[in-house]
Design goal:
By secondary structure, this protein is mainly alpha-helical. Helices cover about 70% and strands about 0% of the residues. It is elongated and about 80 Å long.
Length: about 110
């Protein structure tokens, strides 16, 4: 049983307590987009994590781990005790060994 309303509230439309079909459809669309986005992120994470398995040299694996941890070129060079040019050469070799998408993702983050 409702409470009596007076003044401006009495003239406003009452509406239903449930969700309309349009609202439910919009919620479904948003949920489908979120699921698709989650699946895309899972695919990217898997490809990034599995790319390290295909590296054949230990120094490439070390540089790959450094890139995943967010180190800069300078920090990687200091860590490996090599020049920044050598880091760039290793990154080029890494790009040849792995799929280019993983490398581009690591570069642009």
């Amino acid at each position: 049983m409702g409470v009596a309303q007076y003044g401006i509230e009495a003239t406003l439309p009452k509406g239903s307590s449930g969700k309309s079909q349009v609202e439910l459809r919009d919620m479904d669309i948003r949920e489908q987009k979120q699921v698709a986005r989650l699946e895309e992120y899972q695919r990217r994470v898997y490809s990034i994590e599995s790319a390290g398995n295909y590296l054949d040299r230990e120094i490439l694996k070390i540089e790959y781990d450094c890139m995943l941890s967010g180190m800069t070129r300078q920090e990687i060079a200091i860590h490996l005790e090599i020049s920044r040019d050598s880091v760039d050469k290793l990154r080029f070799i890494f790009e040849l060994h792995s799929c280019g998408g993983v490398f581009l993702y690591l570069e642009n983050r």
